[in-house]
Amino acid sequence: MTAFQAIVLGLVQGLTELLPVSSSAHLALTPYLLGWEDPGLSFDVALHFGTLVALMWYFRNEWLEMTRSAFEILRTRQVSTVHEKRLVYLIVATIPAGVGGLLLNDLAKTVFRSPYIIATTLVVLGVLLWIIDKWSVRSRSIEEVTMRDAIIVGCAQVLALVPGVSRSGSTITAGRLLHLDRPSAARFSFLMSMPITIAAVVKEAPAALQSEGLTMPLLYGVIAAAVSSWLAITVLLRYVSKHSFGVFALYRVILAGVVFYTLATAGA
Questions:
Q1: In 110-141, which ranges are continuous DSSP H helix?
Q2: For residue 154, which of 27, 96, 143, 162 is within the disulfide window of CB 3.0 to 4.6 Å?
Q3: How far apart are CA 142 and CA 182, in angstroms?
Q4: For 35-93, what is each residue's pLDDT tens digit?
């Protein structure tokens, strides 16, 4: 893999990981459409380290507060404040994705990366996102998230094992279904992405380093992913404070159309 290819894939991963458009789909489709060799899931996950850095920096105040809350819970053995409850909810929301990842990891590396599956899930989740976002008129803030909400959004996160679904897309859609306002649905999605991203990086990064080595292209890719992830968080939170998720739903459908067209012409 060249440095240019790694940077392109890093930018793609960072921009699409936190937007509801599916980073796994873009990382699988980019090499396919450009005629590059697919670097595989391990390389994709290694790029997530850049996203992890961006998430830790952008939400550093919240994570520091929740870290203090964790010690307070251990000290008092009670969960009472908003930050203490949010910490518990994020832990609960992470469990389904962790279990699903262990059970479906092999399929995620092989069968689920089919362009046909990716294009189909891009359309299906895009339509659902548009309908639910448009229909969900009542608004609840992130401070009103409950244990029930955390379980439902956590289960939705499991669907993201299929490229094209999108982790942020599935969790934001679930949040909007539960009537969270748009910024709160996005913010909760971003916060709950951090534990599962840490787990994925810890699990898959050694495989990527073993196959690729700690090369300069890999480092360039991680840096590109960190910068573009920070940009994606900043832009999305500002955008959805005044606009709907409709533009992302439309993009998903258009991208799926491009993939279906490419597949049809390739087979002609």
A1: 115-135
A2: 96
A3: 10
A4: 888 776 667 777 888 888 999 999 999 889 888 999 999 988 888 888 889 899 999 98
d(CA 121, CA 144): 30
Contact 245, 130 (CB under 8 A): yes
Nearest to 107 by CA among 157, 37, 158, 172: 158
| DSSP category for residue 165 | T
| Structure tokens belonging to residue 200 | 């994925």
Contact 140, 176 (CB under 8 A): no
Alpha carbon distance 17, 48 (integer Å) = 8
Q: Which amino acid is at 259?
A: V
Burial class (CB in 10 A: 0-12, 13-18, 19+), 14: buried
- Domain count of the fold of the chain: 1
SS3 assignment, position 110 = coil
Range of the domain at 225: 3-267
Contact between 184 and 142 under an 8 Å Cβ cutoff? The reply is yes
Contact between 91 and 145 under an 8 Å Cβ cutoff? The reply is no
Point out which residues pair with 140 in neighbouring strands. Answer: 180
The Cα 260–Cα 255 span in angstroms is 9
Cα–Cα separations (whole angstroms), residue 197 to 25, 81, 136, 227: 17, 26, 28, 17
In angstroms, rounded to a whole number, what is the distance separating the alpha carbons of residues 98 and 134?
30
Length of the chain: 268
Q: How many CA atoms lie within 13 A of 143 on its CB side?
A: 3
C-alpha–C-alpha distance, residues 116 and 29, integer Å: 11
- Among residues 203, 174, 206, 201, the alpha carbon closest in space to that of 188 is found at 174
